[in-house]
């Protein structure tokens, strides 16, 4: 029976300052058994920390007591934290703006003003002498002549603890704006409408939706996705006619299978509006003419273990699919195709090349690929001739940028590396001319002072794991340096080596930064992902540990000065390696960590659970239950010495609920025999992505970095 947790929490705050360790609740408060399948019963002494409503006073007091403990631990490091914060924000050009792109007679861009947290989304009308370069020059000079502001997010965010605009779309006639905003961080949005001619925000407001909206050609009908109020899953596509009651919105499509996510969009040629549903292992599209979107026809019926996405341009469909092609291939189909039998192979499958995406142009096609753990862009021209966009460094990240118009010879792409700030180029496919449109300005940063490497570590099963490294020039590989090793390793998400200006503060203190491209991502193709999920999940964890051993063995770091960092599913990775090899890490940084795998995956009411059975397994099945139980960080905590840890979460996180790390830390405190400090910070007004605003999040990061730098002796 739950008693006065408020009193316990207050006592814990006092003891935190006096003893450097928060006190656990009394034993009688911790009696809880979780019924599991297959006749199992699991003890979960901290289950009481779950409060779906986020209103339980005792739970809130407990979290606030943990925050008070963090404050006490971090108080002596305030000068270091402030120095790190000033360094980080000092590398931000505060009045920066994005590269403008042209669409339907207007140039669109986003800009920031000095000292302000949020962006301004704006546009300028196309005309003689108006292009991307002239608009950039005007923005740099502070000249707003001819600018029309679409959304001044700083004003919209005033008085709110959290605010984010997730998506915005302008109607086809350029007169109406629909945008989706979130005021809690829970990724539950409200769609609103703005008349761009008058500036009036209409009374129409559609709550409880995802951040994904599409206009029909009549410029009055908007398609949006309604979320399930309990699981928060994307469930229904509806259409709203501007100026009519939301209660009259028409249901267009409802997805019955909770293992699928949903999205909506327009094809490249604007001819169709399409609904895309995707699970981990299959997908399905249904499309309708944008001019008359009353009937949505299935493009190709869903089939387990077959994924596809399609786009329409030039009188044909181009389809990317993994049917009989694990690394995907490209197919073509006629406009009226309704069966896979009508697809014809265009770009064949390769065991060595993973096709990630494509963009259709009038005279060529740009294909995003991965090969040997590096990204590249292949340009396919009429007649079948091909060329690759060149890269300038051994480890880099490259991908298509905003290419809003198809009738051009220029393709825009982004390029970055661990030493090169994000750069937007455009390449003329006909002449080969390359123009740099913008390089992310980083005041005080000189790329010549830093070096990036790509090395390969051998895993225990003989697999070679790519690793991207960066350090300050002059660093000596003598086994004395401190190292921060980062990875993710889930969902097929590839962690590419892009520039991170915050890491520069660590490099300048003599640290090495490494990204371990472990299995579970997709850096080496689809097999790399398959070898790091379901019954192969253990590879993700052992790869990370083996990379650490390799880097220490090669002299990149001292064995007692290694830190590990991961977030979300990467937080699961952190929890697993902490249990499996705690002696190899001096510090572990874990943000919004997915650490209570079994309990969460047994609860279909929690967002993401049902959609992720094909990622982790369904624990209702005995073999999956036992396998997940074997690595779940919360279930495998034991009496041993753990590293110092900084663990963070957001109270309103809808992806990984706050109680997972809260329970994990509480049990860890009971079992930890080591002397490493463990702190747990809950942002009481934030969700999965942390606080909103570009500077507020740097406050959070500087606190974590101060903890890291101090524990590694790198200050």
TrEMBL record:
Keywords: Hydrolase, Protease, Serine protease, Signal
Residues annotated as signal peptide: 1-18
Protein's UniProt keywords contain Protease: yes
Domain Peptidase S9 prolyl oligopeptidase catalytic: start-end pairs: 499-713
Domain Peptidase S9A N-terminal: 25-439
InterPro entries given in the database record: AB_hydrolase_fold, Pept_S9A_N, Peptidase_S9_cat, Peptidase_S9A, Serine_Peptidase_S9A
Gene3D superfamilies listed in its UniProt record: alpha/beta hydrolase, Prolyl oligopeptidase, N-terminal domain
Family membership noted in the UniProt record: Belongs to the peptidase S9A family.
Protein name as it appears in the record: S9 family peptidase
Protein species of origin: Luteimonas endophytica
